[in-house]
Amino acid sequence: MSTARNRLVSAVLAIASASLLQGCSTTPRFDKHFGDAVRANLAAQVIDPDAAANTNPAAGMDGAAARASHERYQRSFKENPGTERPLIGGSGTK
Questions:
Q1: I need a labelling partner for 80 at 20 to 30 A (CA). Which of 10, 22, 24, 66 fits?
Q2: What does the angle CA 8 – CA 12 – CA 13 come to, to the nearest 5 degrees?
Q3: Terminus-to-terminus CA distance in the chain, angstroms?
């Protein structure tokens, strides 16, 4: 009876140690592509990687129009928006 029990204990220990060692195995399929998704997402966010070397200024509005537009934008935060009705319905008043 003792030898059968010893064999069972040995088998259980062998299976347990094999299971534990399996967790330490390498994953070459995953390691080979580690970080590819992050690098692909970073590359997708860059429109022009040589933009810093471009010394040609961007074409757009003339200076007077840009300044007036910026001043109008800044004033919009200081002015009272007025007495507009909210778009939320069902306020509960008559």
A1: 66
A2: 115
A3: 92
